Amino acid sequence: MKIYENTGSKDTRSGFGDGLTELGKKNEKVVALCADLTGSLKMNAFADNHPERFFQVGIAEANMMGIAAGMTIGGKIPFTGTFANFSTGRVYDQIRQSIAYSDKNVKICASHSGLTLGEDGATHQILEDIGLMKMLPGMTVINTCDYNQTKAATLAIAEHHGPVYLRFGRPKVANFTPENGTFEIGKAVMLQEGTDVTIIATGHLVWEALEAAKTLNEKGISAEVINIHTIKPLDEAAIIASAKKTGCVVTAEEHNYLGGLGESVARTLAMHHPTAQEFVATQDTFGESGTPAQLLEKYGLNAENIALKAEKVISRK
Fold it and tell me: Which of 61, 224, 236, 278 is catalytic?
């Protein structure tokens, strides 16, 4: 079993900020827009280095999406930045009509997603954004797991033509993927091969999946762990191949089980290789105020619950 090490916990939003800063230096077409949350999105360095390419629109997220869409007509590559709740739910009509329907080359970059936003509570903890965005035709949906992968994804989406939703988070989490690694949109990452159960995870729960695999290994259970960083387009071939090998699947995500990664995996399996599946996700509920650790434990979004679900789904083979 391959052992992954936390090389030092870092926040994924800093991965976005550092990636954007690097893009600013090497691609003059990249512009950045922020809705009064420059510090929270770690966009300060880009703003300081390229003031002529940074646009602070204030608390006017819908206007920000419209401006970004317009900028693409002149060949710019706009990166918008605000919290995930404000990047999707608040501006869904503008994204649908002005960006997705028109196939505009806008990169919607969303921080503070999921429960790990923490103490700000349910009004800010969006748990349905993946579903909202993946249902838009032509929208690429990416949910990164750590600092290194978020930075790599930020660089990669600048080279991809078309609308992208890039989702990341607020707290410091384990940083375990390779530094300066490549990021291939739509390509799953096999983190660990196994024979008894497949664990498919995204975002902050990828590390929890690896920790769960350690626990299962101690019990003699061989878990295959796959990092699905791109939820749309989904790497169906990787999912089907693993399910055929292990015979059962657990999906893990910091999102509602309705509309998220688990649902996309279930659809894939139902169409191509019906397989027993268990879901680690929020159960059609809003969040609440608390520390990230408290909330992940209460809602079962942790290694312990992933391991329990793995044992349960193995019993259903």
Answer: 61
Amino acid 14 reads S
| pLDDT digit string, tens, across residues 59-98 | 999 999 999 999 999 999 999 999 999 999 999 999 999 9
Q: What is the pTM of this model?
A: 0.97
CATH number at residue 121: 3.40.50.970
The identity of residue 225, as a single letter, is V
Residues 252 and 307 in one domain: yes
User: Is 193 designated active site?
Assistant: no
Beta bridge partners of 30: 77
* Positive or negative: CA dihedral 234, 209, 195, 176: positive
Please tell me whether residue 56 adopts helix, strand or coil conformation.
strand
The tens digit of pLDDT for each residue in 216-239 reads 999 999 999 999 999 999 999 999
CATH of the domain at 273: 3.40.50.920
- Judge contact between 227 and 188, C-beta under 8 A: yes
